[in-house]
Amino acid sequence: MSAAQGQITYRDAIREAIREALQNDDRVFLMGEDVGRYGGCFAVSKGLLEEFGPERIRDTPMSESAFVGAGIGAALGGMRPIVEIMTVNFSLLALDQIMNNAATFLHMSGGQFNVPLVIRMATGAGRQVAAQHSHSLEGWFAFIPGIRILAPGTIEDARGMLATALEDPDPVLMFEHAGLYNMKAQLPIDSGPVDIERARVRRPGRDVTIITYGAMLWKCLDAAESLAKKGVEAEVIDLRTLRPLDDATFLESVGRTHRALVVDEGWRSGGISAEICSRIQEKAFYDLDAPVERVCGVEAPTPYPKHLEDASFPQVPTIVAAVEAMVRMHG
Amino acid sequence: MPSLGADMEEGTLIEWSVKPGDRVKRGDIVGVVRTEKADIEVEVYRDGVIEQLLAKAGDTLPVGAVLAVIREEGEAAAPAHEEIPPAPAPAAPGLTPPVARVRASPLARRVAQELGVDLSGVQGTGPHAEITQTDVLQAAEALKKAPTEKPAVPELRAGIRRAIAAAMARSNREIPHYHLETKIDLQHALKFLEAENQKRSVKDRLLSVILLIKAVARALHDVPELNAYWIDDQLQPKEAVHIGFAISLRQGGLVVPAIIDADRKNLDELMQALRDLITRARGPATKFRNHRWYRNHHELGRSRS
Q1: Cα B138–Cα B140–Cα B143 angle in degrees, nearest 5
Q2: Measured between alpha carbons, how far is A226 from A259 in angstroms, rounded to an integer?
Q3: DSSP assignment of A280-299
Q4: Could you report the per-residue pLDDT of A158-216, keeping only the tens digit for each?
């Protein structure tokens, strides 16, 4: 940790958020595979077992269905559990608990039982962990009514989203991009909670709106920087919350720029990018001066070799090229 | 492509009213051709069967171009005409041909509507020549700068003016002109007409111009030297007396069909011929046959004036 220089990592930010929650509310506890003695598979919870003890930092058996189900039960029982799933692909083993139980209890109990549960997991590619550990399935989860989907892309959001999520009376899933854990930024370590309702304009621009989230935010910002040198001013929007989707922010932006590009690390067909494109054409059709475009992950199992993995996901040059084609060729 | 006027160089086939395999008789109307002067029905001069339609609606072809092939009775089926363009695939019944659509972005359409820009006249700069907002704004800017022009004279009308001007200029250039002047007391003639018309129903009444036509026709009969062409440096008298009669068209312009054998027609026949000409000249499509005597008017017209 380099808090001395005022810089913290995305990992530090999340750890501080968890620590703060544990300090402020006795009902909060953390559980998951290797979160205790090992310190978490991405070292997010390192040191928390020593600080808070095994009652509140609980290592679980290797059964996602069991410990997510236990988390749901604890939440129903009045606790405020934070459940960590190692990576997004393992969340599929808990999908039934998430979709059939966590997301439906409020409805099925006629409003009597809400599930104040926070589930955290690592998502995304870029670390050469191949086809089984490189998914971006947050778009899939955003399909499910009854849960809130968060995708912090900045250190400020990594630090501030958890507290707000814990206040939510219903299930919240937080997708932390594994490629961002080592990212550093200047942020006061005691930086406060943030809203989990609205998207944010991370860079203003007049020529095109780039809509993205998570780790892709930084590629889009780099692309915008490179486009600015060529005289193209791209506005970059960080969605932050994928469900419910804050379409007002990107629709307002498209109303000014008249062009929209969605950049999503997830697979293209049927992804969250398709939903965003659809809302733009439904609600901003007469503001469009060009077709809405997408740059998405290649629809294939993620390859292991670095060069092939790089080729499978949106990169700065591909984003720049897509914007240039839209802006130059469509007037 | 028939020559439908002295100065016609080309014509546009508007429609066929026959199709291959149809049996036609001399005098049948087979289609409509648009010249600079009018839309004119085209008739055929032979009996037979339409073998092939070589021109298609919308084709503009020079005078003399082959529009269609008619096989006469007993004539062997001709081999395919060399100039036949590949026949377009027949449209599925009930389907209208696709209309070329203006490709413009939704924003461009909205802005064009707000600024009153006609998108059909805007050049698009998109990857497939789509019209973008920028194109519309530029067009609107150009519209503002350009002085407001008077609405253009419709094409057909401009064509008629051009044709009349060309014919008049040619007439003045090529035909020897002479001018006669005399006074004629029309008192008796008009009294005769008045008395005659009192005996007739309104629709059968004679116009005074009928007397003039008859008088000119008789004069030409009596002085045949005047009923002649001056061609190849010599006078070429003609037996038949056809009198051209100028008729103004409703949509503007003028045609001059002829009253055939005017010297051999009595007043009633002349009146009948005149009514017929006027009705047909002002009808939707002027019949081909009347136009063939376009030139006669100018020659006779000159001799009359």
Answers
A1: 110
A2: 18
A3: HHHHSGGG-SS--EEEEE-S
A4: 999 999 999 999 999 999 999 999 999 988 766 889 999 999 999 999 999 999 999 99
Residues across chain B: 305
Residue A133 known to be catalytic: yes
Q: Is A177 labeled as catalytic in the residue annotation?
A: no
Helix (H, G, I), strand (E, B) or coil at B116: coil
pLDDT digits (tens, 9 = 90+) for A5-26: 679 999 999 999 999 999 999 9
CB-CB contact of B296 with B217 (8 Å): no
Do A289 and B108 count as a contact with CB atoms less than 8 A apart?
Answer: yes
* Per-position b or e across A143-182, b if 16+ CB within 10 A of its CB: ebebbbbbbbbbbbbbbbbbbbbbebebbbbbbbbbbbbe
Instruction: Report helix, strand and coil shares of chain B as percent, to nearest 5.
Output: 35, 15, 45
The contacts of residue A299 (CB under 8 Å, 6+ apart) are: A267, A268, A269
Whole-complex ipTM: 0.73
Q: Is the per-residue pLDDT at B197 higher than 70? A: yes
Give the containing element (helix H, strand E) for B48.
strand B48-53
Q: How many CB atoms lie within 10 A of CB A200?
A: 18
Peptide bond into B90 cis (omega under 30): no
Instruction: Check CB contact under 8 Å for B106 and A330.
Output: no
- How many other CB atoms sit within 10 Å of the CB of residue B57? 12
Number of C-beta neighbours around residue A300 at 10 A? 11
Sheet holding A148-150, edge to edge: A57-59, A28-32, A80-87, A118-123, A172-177, A148-150, A241-243
**pLDDT interval class at B158 (50, 70, 90):** low
Q: Would you call B127 and A330 a contact, using CB atoms and an 8 Å cutoff?
A: yes
Measured between CA atoms, how close is A262 to chain B, in angstroms? 19
| Ranges A176-180, B113-117, B143-147: which has the least confidence | B143-147
Query: Judging by DSSP bridges, how do beta strands A118-123 and A80-87 pair with one another?
Result: parallel
pLDDT digits (tens, 9 = 90+) for A237-286: 999 999 999 999 999 999 999 999 999 999 999 999 999 999 999 999 99
Residues of A in contact with B137 (CB under 8 A): none
Res A91 pLDDT > 70: yes
- If 0-12 CB within 10 Å is exposed, 13-18 middle and 19+ buried, where does residue B114 land? exposed
Asked if residues B124 and B103 have their Cβ atoms less than 8 Å apart, the reply is yes
CA distances from B243 to A323, B195, B219, B277, B296 (A): 75, 26, 12, 12, 7
